[in-house]
Amino acid sequence: MEKVLFENENIRVIFSENDITDKDKLLIMFSPMNFSMKSIDDFYGKGIVKNNKINAISIMALKSHWYPENYMKDILGLINNISRSFQHIIIYGVSMGGYAAIKYSRRLGATHIIAMMPQWSININDIDDRRYYKEYSSLANELDNMAIKSEDISGDLYVFYDNYHKEDSLQVNKIIDIYHNVFVTHTPFVGHTLGHILIGSEFFLKLCHTVLKKDKNELIHLVRNKVRNHPMKYQGIMRNAFKRHISLLVGVIERLPNDHVIFNNALFVEEIKYLLSKIGDVNRLLRIITKFKQVSFENIYKFIMNRSLTYPVIYTAHENFLCFDLLNKKLVLCEDSEIKSNMFLIPLRFHYDAGILGVFEDNNTFIPLIDIGNKQFSLMSTMDFYSLGNYKMQPFLFYKKISNFFVISNGIFHATATPKKIIDFGKEHIKDWEKFQMKLLPNSGRDIL
Question: Which InterPro entries did the record assign (predicted)?
Fold first, then answer.
């Protein structure tokens, strides 16, 4: 049964009595910023309360106002009239709601507080956190003395937050500084999204029971199990890795199984686009993009083609560029416009005055091209290449600089570039068509291997 305890243009308070025989615990919940009711009989935490048959009071901010004192003064007495008959009073809130849960805990007689990513204050004169400057500036008079003080708090305080999140860490550390009875659970890399992760009726009931038992080890286990494989956790890990180095980010993605939930998450598309724009190794890039179900090849093209070329590639007498077609496994001669429109064409280059034709992964690990017959080629695995004994016995393509040009051979015949954009091996002589140069792609906008 629901009863409206209080309502005005700023706050609505509902008492939901679901078990009249249970006087053991009362749950008081403060809604976060931007909470909106789906219907007139809706209230914050309704699913949790109804599914678990918990007696609860839901305090809903109808605007983003951080529950200032003059908004709450008429409400606290109404709630205390109900709460004084309960043994355990658990106050719960997320972000703005977490602030209020702590701020009014003593006046509401709290025995336990569950606060996720709470603020200590949003007053920029109190703390260097400008995320909520707009809300604070519109309520400066009401929030002038909003910082939580030690005398505001009572009960066991349980705080959950991402210790890698700068502003949330700053806020929580202020709370820890003023109150002695705080148990902190770190949830690294989730950012300010924890309220979207630690959800569900069954989970919440377990959370309350664990808090009441004061079993801190079980609490850590419960929360981390919930967070461990959530897509938002992996988004956070990837963002954090990218801040350090692109190779760390790529490594994280490559280690995840192809069926991992993150690869179906449309929310991560923007990060993936940015990732694609930074990877210079096309083979590695292809291994990554095939994992992501939400990223179309159309989108990939746009980003791949906007990358800058930093070194010259192989150029023929017919003014074409020598490329490896990754899809069709062929050596092809292409114009620069074809390369810019097809991400599977890998322009090749000579790395030294003589050597084996192939590519460098991350400009470090060499991957050679090998002849697999029928004018088709493949990239040999790095492990196989470095385990070889006699290179000359392998079906590699060799190149060598002679005077001011290069020649390419399969160990028997020289490669020849025909006007029909075909590479053929069958010439013993060296004339213009067998001579290769190095040249930058004009206005390429593409990295190559």
Answer: AB_hydrolase_fold
